[in-house]
Write the structure tokens for this entry.
Amino acid sequence: MALFSSDKKETKAKKTKSGTRLWGRGMLAVDDSRLANVLKRPWFSEKALIGTESGVYVFEVPQAATKEDVAQAIIKFYGVTPMKVRMVNLPAKKVSLRTRRGVGTRARRHKAYVYLKKGDSITFA
């Protein structure tokens, strides 16, 4: 047993499957079907629509989505490379139900701000 010996084993580098480095540290496989569920829908609020003029787009995403997932989904579905992605957690809130029960809870949400280069744009049709 060579627990404290000076002999070190050489580790072999793992070969990766054919993937293309597109954004950040992640690798995007050609047939990556999990990205289809990353972008739930665009976020259409007054603040979000004002931001589209300066190249900032807002999307509703699942709680488990990461910045890399969002960036890879934008590249795959819209064909533009984001400069940066910021994630925001919106907490659940108490809302009035105007019924006998009185008060309910609105679900918590998760959204992503996608910043594009000047001149790039995403069209929602």
